[in-house]
Structure formats: C-alpha cells, structure tokens
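Inverse folding, one chain.
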C-alpha cells in the first residue's frame, strides 16, 4: 500500500505541469525587456522547467506598456488584466502571481476584484509593493523619467484633484497621513481596494482564498516612502514621522481585509530582505520565493 502511494506520488510529480506564473511589473518598467522582467521570466523558466510565465503587458506595445505605468487609470488596468487572465488558456488550472513594486497593489486588486471569476490564484507574492500607498516619491522610477519632477510636484500639490487622480497612476496610491479623510474620500483606487471607504466582503473572501499572501519588504529601500508600506505599515494618521506596523493600522484593527483570519491560518507571510528597492540575489529568490511558493 505504502509503495503504491509513493509510486502514485512519483507519477504525479513527473507528469504534473508546474503551476503557471503571472508577473506584473512596476513603474518605469515593462513586461518584456531582458534586463528587467524579461530576465526574471527567463530565470523562472530555467529554474522551473516547463513552467508557463505570463509577464503582463499593459497595452499593445512595449512603449504603451511603459507609458501606461504612469498614465493609465489603475481601475482600467485591473479590468484589462482580469480579461487577459480569464482568456489565457495556460492559466486555467490556477496560477501563482508576483507583483513588482506598484504591480503589487495592482495584482492584489486583481485578486480582490476578480478572484471569484478567475481560475484559483494560489500564492500572491508582492515585492516592494505600496500596499498602504506612498507619501513622497524620492526616486521616481527605475529609469529616470524626464517628467519625474513634474509628477512629484503634482503629487505634492494636487494629488487628490479629480483630474490628477484620473490621469496620473501614482496619485491613486498617494496617501497623505496629514489628511486621511481626503485620501479616503478622493483616492480612486487604493482607498477602495483597502476597503477604507466601505467594506466589500468579496474583497475579503477573495484574499482569503489565496494559499499565501507573501509581502516582501526591502529594508533599505530608497524609492518607496515609507518602506513599511510594503508590509502594510504606514504613518500614524495626523503626522509623517511615526510609523505604525500592520497590526496597529485601521485596516487591521477594524479587520477591513480579513487579515486576522489569514494570520491565524498562516496565510499572511511577511519577509524582509536587506537592500534597496527590488534588489535581490538569484539565490535569495530561489530559496525564499521559488522553493516555498512556486513549486506547487
Ligand atoms: C490597444 O489598441 C486598441 C486599438 O487601437 C485600443 O482600442 C486599445 O485601447 C489598446 N489597448 C490598450 C490597453 O491601450
Ligand atoms: C464588491 O466587489 C465586487 C468585485 O469587484 C463587485 O462586483 C461589487 O460590485 C462590489 N460591491 C460593492 C458594494 O461595491
Ligand atoms: C469626505 O466626505 C465626507 C462625506 O461625503 C464629507 O463630509 C467630508 O467633508 C469629506 N472630507 C474631505 C476632506 O474631503
Ligand atoms: C539596511 O536596513 C537594516 C534595517 O534597518 C539595517 O540594519 C542595515 O544596517 C541596513 N543596511 C545597509 C547596507 O544600509
Ligand atoms: C504588533 O506587532 C509587533 C511585532 O511585529 C509587536 O511588537 C506589537 O506588540 C504588535 N502590536 C499589537 C497591538 O499587537
């Protein structure tokens, strides 16, 4: 009997196709060039033989993909991605998802808004995501975008104006701790997916259906401010110095995203790594992300 079980297990191992993977790149980045996510895709394909990797391109070309990271309303990006994922036959048995930087909160929005109409999303891994938003834009994107200073100024002075919300992606996750109410009232994206305005039960259920939500924080991040947002921490409301950890935020205390249950079930995983934004070694990635979460 025991031999039979082992034999069946071995057969399953050799016949099973690895779980597909979806990637969503960050601001100032694109789906496919070799020195960024194209390189990660190749790396995954090498380390997990036979795996299918869909590195999301938002738009009809790489140039559009790059521009859309700044200028396409995230609600529309999320709808677009939900459609892409629903119609990708390689994902029909379920998939794992990895978000890079702002791609983190966008993929989380995909899970929350479309999880119930997509094949099972097993693990969502976010690398340097801005889950509670940002207050500041110290370094504006991996490639220094010429309009960076303009964007920074717009965010400082008019992030919550409706035309800025509609035209500038980063404004939709701008979180001003000195004016929480304006953030909650006016952010057209992040305040909604964080259930700050009202609690959408579907969001909670869909997040809970993940096997794991893995949040990776870069301890010496100089791009994301504050870096604790990568673990759902943020400035305590009313000032911009003291940071509260996830378990002391309104989202956690009022259980707006169902984190208490996820924590109890071991589904919420917080990982930190020394280094700047999205800087990690191949070995770290294999040991910390691939082996525990992508070989299912
Ligand atoms: C792709 O091109 C079509 C046709 O030009 C256009 O309608 C659509 O908006 C484009 N998609 C995106 C996401 O930009
Ligand atoms: C809650 O989210 C689901 C999934 O996106 C959506 O269909 C529904 O309309 C939302 N409910 C409310 C009250 O906004
Ligand atoms: C937020 O919305 C509430 C209810 O609509 C309103 O009373 C309040 O003045 C708004 N606050 C800000 C800062 O916009
Ligand atoms: C990175 O941050 C950690 C935690 O704050 C700190 O202990 C470490 O010294 C920093 N490393 C570098 C290279 O700055
Ligand atoms: C929150 O978590 C930290 C460790 O991450 C712990 O020191 C602190 O006591 C916790 N606070 C609450 C209110 O549970």
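Residues assigned per position:
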């Amino acid at each position: 009997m025991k031999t039979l079980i082992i034999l069946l297990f071995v057969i399953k191992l050799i016949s099973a196709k690895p779980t597909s993977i979806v990637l969503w790149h960050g601001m100032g980045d694109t789906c496919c060039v070799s020195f960024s996510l194209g390189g990660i895709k190749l790396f995954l394909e090498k380390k997990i033989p036979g795996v299918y990797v869909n590195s999301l391109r938002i738009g009809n070309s790489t140039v559009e993909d790059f521009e859309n990271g700044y200028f396409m309303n995230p609600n529309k990006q999320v709808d677009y991605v939900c459609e892409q994922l629903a119609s990708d036959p390689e994902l029909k048995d379920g998939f794992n998802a990895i978000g890079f930087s702002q791609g983190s909160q966008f993929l989380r929005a995909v899970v929350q808004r479309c999880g119930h109409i997509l094949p099972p999303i097993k693990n969502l891994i976010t690398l340097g995501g801005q889950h509670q938003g940002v207050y500041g834009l110290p370094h504006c994107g991996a490639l220094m975008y010429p309009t960076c200073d303009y964007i920074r100024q717009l965010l400082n002075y008019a992030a919550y104006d409706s035309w800025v919300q509609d035209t500038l992606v980063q404004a939709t996750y701008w979180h001003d701790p000195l004016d929480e109410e304006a953030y909650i009232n006016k952010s057209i994206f992040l305040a909604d997916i964080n259930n700050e305005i009202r609690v959408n039960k579907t969001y909670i259920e869909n997040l809970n259906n993940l096997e794991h939500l893995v949040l990776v924080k870069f301890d010496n991040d100089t791009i994301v401010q504050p870096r604790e947002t990568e673990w759902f921490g943020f400035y305590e409301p009313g000032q911009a110095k003291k940071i509260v950890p996830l378990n002391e935020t309104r989202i956690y205390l009022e259980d707006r995203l169902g984190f208490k249950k996820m924590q109890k079930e071991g589904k919420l995983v917080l990982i930190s790594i020394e280094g700047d934004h999205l800087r990690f070694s191949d070995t770290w990635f294999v040991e910390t992300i691939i082996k525990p979460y992508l070989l299912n």
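Residues 285 and 291 are 9 Å apart (CA to CA). Residues 181-182, 185 surround 2-acetamido-2-deoxy-beta-D-glucopyranose (ligand 3) (CB under 6 Å).
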